[in-house]
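Extended Data, record Terminase TerL endonuclease subunit
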Amino acid sequence: MARLHQELGAAMQAGRLRHDGNPALEWCINNVVGHLDARGNVYPRKARPEQRIDAVVAVIMALKRPISGEGGSIDMHAFLADPLFL
């Protein structure tokens, strides 16, 4: 997980992450505040309860697989029977 945070941070600083100007995604991005834990990991948080960051969390989840090198095919039937999100 630490590698994911490092890669994501580097991609953001280098300007390699771009979006099409979607206003909902832009709103979620503007609501994100980085939270540092005791191990030095940065997690997305929101400053106020009424804010939403769901789209940013979805982007992080989508990037986990290619960044971590996990590959292979997914058995969709098994996934739907017992979904697990890491």
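Summary. The chain has one domain: 2-81.
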